[in-house]
Design a protein that fits this description.
Layout: E1 4-10, E2 27-28, E3 31-32, H1 33-40, E4 46-51, H2 56-62, E5 72-73, H3 78-89, E6 96-101, H4 109-120, E7 125-131, E8 136-140, E9 143-147, E10 153-155, E11 159-162, H5 163-172, H6 181-187, E12 192-196, H7 209-217, E13 220-233, E14 237-240, E15 243-246, E16 250-251, H8 259-272, H9 277-280, H10 294-306, E17 310-319, H11 329-340, E18 347-352, H12 358-361, E19 365-376
Parallel strand pairs: 1-4, 1-6, 4-5, 7-12, 17-18
Antiparallel strand pairs: 2-3, 6-11, 7-10, 7-11, 8-9, 13-16, 13-19, 14-15, 17-19
The chain binds magnesium ion.
Length: 378
């Protein structure tokens, strides 16, 4: 079977899209743009990323939990970046390479399949195209001239190539200026084949494109809930929502007994319809003795990502008379946001007492409830 590599180019600064960071690392429905893009290519044999020199930390955060080769640092322009990415793929020796812009996260499996099918039936260079349907005008002074749109097409990515041929073309045209990789292939004398593009395969460029992309993504919303309780015992601190809080007692449990993170982990698993925390991390398993509960929540987060989804919102309620939660509430939100890789606005942590009633009222332990909302593809 042919070996197919994906080369995802994410070296741009993307300043037009706003948001204070390159657009490929900004959140789209709770997951970084680049996370969606990488996910779309997970059916290919190797996925090589090219990133900006200053983006190492953002890239590591956006791809936590995804097994990928080390990213290549991009060059002075896109063409240089692609060439460096191709050089990094030489050792993998793919038959074909799909070169794609990270800023097109909505690329469909069907479109990738059309490009691959064309390569497998003998094409040297493949570009997805769409006709121009809007009337085209050229501004000339104060007037507008009509542009005949017959024969005009919009080119998209992924553009697919025979690996050895496009690598040779990039090496030969190093330092020259080309519009895209198809232009480089054409100049090198390769035969160009077109396949039908996809209107949903939009390129995120401007700030308003994020809202448009989220509307196109749609998907299904799922909600899960979780509940947990742990009994007070000996100790001088408790763990709650990933924070160590000094207290006159500890909480008893096989792990660190973080009822907040346990309830939230169960809520995420519930939204996925994928069992509960005890199923994934059996209490009888010695590996989880004294475990830090962020491991459990990260596992649930990774299961959502593996399903091609994202966590949209989490709401945790801690139920206890003591310790006082309010002084730690914002730090708890920040910690949960950090564990999940989500922005703070998607995380809520609340607290209540039961007015002296029941086991929490008698100060026998701490309980927690959580609700998680996730988005999954259709
Ligand atoms: Mg528990």
């Amino acid at each position: 079977m042919a070996k197919i590599a994906s080369l995802i180019v994410a070296g741009g600064r993307g300043v037009r899209a706003g948001g204070g960071m390159p657009k490929q690392y900004r959140s789209l429905l709770g997951r970084p743009v680049i996370g969606w893009t990488i996910g779309a290519f997970r059916g290919t044999d190797v996925i090589q990323l090219v990133i900006g020199a200053e983006d190492g930390a953002a890239f590591a955060a956006a791809t936590a939990g995804i097994a990928l080769p080390a990213p290549v640092t991009g060059g002075a322009n896109r063409q240089d970046s692609v060439r460096l990415g191709l050089e990094a793929l030489v050792a993998a020796a793919p038959d074909y390479v799909l070169i794609h812009d990270a800023a097109r996260p909505l690329v469909s499996a069907a479109l990738i399949g059309r490009v691959v099918a064309a390569l497998e039936s003998g094409a040297e260079a493949v570009v997805p195209v769409l006709p121009v349907t809007d009337a085209l005008k050229r501004v000339e002074g104060v007037g507008l001239a009509n542009v005949v749109r017959d024969g005009l097409y919009r080119a998209q990515t992924p553009q697919g190539f025979r690996f050895d041929a496009i690598l040779a073309a990039h090496r030969a045209q190093r330092g020259e200026e080309a519009v895209d990789d198809i232009a480089i292939a054409e100049k090198a004398g390769m035969t160009i084949t077109t396949v039908v593009g996809d209107e949903a395969n939009m390129k995120i460029t401007a700030a308003e494109d994020f809202a448009h992309a989220e509307r196109l993504m749609g998907g299904q919303t799922r909600t899960g809930m979780g509940f947990d309780a742990h009994r007070f015992g000996e100790g001088d601190h408790v763990w709650l929502c990933g924070l160590k809080i000094p207290h006159s007692a500890g909480l008893i449990g096989h792990s660190d007994a973080d009822a907040g993170l346990h309830a939230l982990t169960d809520a995420v698993l519930g939204a996925l319809g994928n069992g509960d925390i005890g199923l994934h991390f059996p209490p009888a398993d010695e590996r989880w003795r004294g475990a830090s509960s962020d491991k459990f929540l990260k596992h649930a987060r990774d299961l959502v990502a593996e399903a091609g989804g994202s966590i949209v919102h989490c709401d945790v309620t801690l139920i206890c008379e003591a310790p006082k939660i309010t002084p730690h509430r914002e730090a708890m939100r920040a910690r949960v946001a950090e564990i999940l890789g989500l922005e703070l606005s998607r995380i809520s942590v609340k607290a209540t007492t039961t007015e002296g009633m029941g086991f929490t009222g008698r100060r026998e332990g701490i309980a927690a409830q959580a609700v998680a909302t996730i988005r999954l593809p259709w």
